[in-house]
Amino acid sequence: MTTVTQHAEQLSTTTLLRFATAGSVDDGKSTLVGRLLHDSKSVLTDQLEAVEHASRNRGQEAPDLALLTDGLRAEREQGITIDVAYRYFATPRRRFILADTPGHVQYTRNMVTGASTAELAVVLVDARNGVVEQTRRHAAVAALLRVPHVVLAVNKMDLVDYAEPVFAAIAEEFTAYAASLGVPEITAIPISALAGDNVVEPSAHMDWYGGPTVLEHLETVPVSHDLTACHARFPVQYVIRPQTAEHPDYRGYAGQIAAGAFRVGEAVTVLPSGRTSTIAGIDALGESVDIAWAPQSVTIRLADDIDVSRGDLIAPADDAPSVTQDVEATVCHVADQPLAVGQRVLLKHTTRTVKAIVKDIPSRLTLDDLSQHPAPGRLVANDIGRVVVRTAEPLALDAYADSRRTGSFLLIDPADGTTLTAGMAGEAFAAAAPGEETAAADDAEWDF
What is the pTM of this model? Predict the structure, then answer.
């Protein structure tokens, strides 16, 4: 039988790396992305011709590779990145999903969106300006979202005569700051996105640098995880009950395994009810299997006929998360309308959506210096802060530090379905500020 660890090793040669780029305005994020796509031969001929034509119309002799990612008309006109641009490309060694995120302060929420599923973040710094306020902000967001690998790309080295001391000073300052936030791995690379130095090909101008190019690092950074060490979690998405002559008694619970692995014969607990059973069978792609692992989509059959529905979570009986109605979390507010104490919301966690009330907003985080602003009362767009939410029904919530998938949630406006806030349960790196719960308004439908 193939073990989970062996399967992870087999996947390591064809792994998918999700990564995001970030940095201050005009640091060259889109140019770097364009250079990666161009030099790795991931750009179609007609795309390159369109970029060359647009560049000539703007009076530029060489093609502006930033136009490969800045697809919105406003982005092209202003020469800035406004929205998150996703690009898909591959090399013989690895497949990539890339999120090019904006650099403006008012688009911090966009970086949170792009980096929320990233396994690596590339933070760009202009070699002439060094580490600036926005650089620290993006490093803090990467640490907050538990991005395991961070690359510091010191760009525009051609404008500082490829000077090693300039690179060394920036790398030392950034590494010290990011390490203080708990970023586990930091790699510094001197580059020139415009000239192509150390992006895909090694630079002939920086013989003092002996490390990998950006693409080499992206191709070789370890992203396969030992799935046997993960907390196994299976959010139920759909109950399959055909009730046909061929399958009169079939009852299966379909969904995508969020983490870890499940085996036939394993004792499991269904949350939030707490009822226990044993896995009688696992169906994947129409066939019965003995074992399944994340992120496979499967149907799990239980030995006992117990009540299981969409939104329930199946977990190993000896490794089940705690169930709670009081959620303390670090959140990033993404909506234009504020989030206020006492506000009624919907909380969506995996496949489960429940009513909730914002009981307290103990603090707002100032990313510039990581100070806590106590009791702000509300959060506005791009704010990151601590919240306490009371839910109408129990939730099986992991700490975000343990599982990015089952430790995250969304707060939604119940009136129109607008996403208000992205949440990360537990402490993250920001300390929870003490604060008493505020009384909720009396309302029969929301009184819990």
Answer: 0.79
Whole-angstrom Cα distance, residue 435 to residue 387? 10
Q: Which residues pair with 407 in a beta bridge?
A: none
pLDDT band at 74 (very low <50, low <70, confident <90, very high): very low
Dihedral angle, C-alpha 20, 25, 28, 30, nearest 10 °? 50
- Show Cβ contacts of residue 248 under 8 Å, excluding neighbours closer than 6 positions: none
The 3-state secondary structure of the chain, one letter per residue? CCCHHHHHHHHHHHCEEEEEEEECCCCCHHHHHHHHHHHCCCCCHHHHHHHHHHHHHCCCCCCCHHHHCCCCHHHHHHCCCCCCEEEEEEECCEEEEEEECCCCHHHHHHHHHHHCCCCEEEEEEECCCCCCHHHHHHHHHHHHCCCCEEEEEEECHHHHCCCHHHHHHHHHHHHHHHHHCCCCEEEEEECECCCCECCCECCCCCCCCCCCCHHHHHHHCCCCCCHHHCCCEEECCEEECCCCCCCCCCCEEEEECCECEEECCCEEEEECCCEEEEEEEEEECCEEECEEECCCEEEEEECCCCCCCCCCEEEECCCCCCEEEEEEEEEEECCCCCEECCCEEEEEECCEEEEEEEEEEEEEEECCCCEEEECCCEECCCCEEEEEEEEEEEEECCCCCCCCCCCEEEEECCCCCCEEEEEEECCCCCCCCCCCCCCCCCCHHHCC
pLDDT 10s digits, 179-197: 888 888 999 999 998 888 9
CA dihedral in degrees (412, 414, 417, 421; nearest 10)?
-20
The confidence band for 57, taking pLDDT boundaries of 50, 70 and 90, is low
Residue 54: pLDDT band with limits 50, 70, 90: low
CA distance 215 to 220: 9
CA atoms 303, 307, 310, 313: torsion sign: negative
